[in-house]
Here is the input.
Amino acid sequence: MKITLHQIAHARSGDKGAHSNVGLMFTSQELYEWAKINISTSVIKQHFKSIAKGEILRYEMDNLLALNFILGDSLGGGGSESLINDAQGKTHGQALLLMEVDLPDNLSQFVSSK
Here is the structure.
């Protein structure tokens, strides 16, 4: 089933210099285990291809059911110094929650209708 990430996760993001970070917190262990397999750095790089010009790093935080992504060179020189759309990393979390994913039907009971 096609859904957007906001139906199964929450996000928090910020910026530091030329990079931003996005944390995705999943609402169940089952969704988190699915995400560890399916939301890779290459998937994130594709989603943010017009923003993230550098390397994408991923950190798994099993105790929080969360994945944290560092979006390298995603702020055009820095959140407070950028001349490109006044970039701020705090918007990247919301942008990621709009990403569509194909969730297996056996996880449909965890999908929020919000």
Notes: Residues 79-86 have pLDDT under 50 and may be disordered. The chain has one domain: 2-104. Residues 5 and 97 are 5 Å apart (CA to CA).
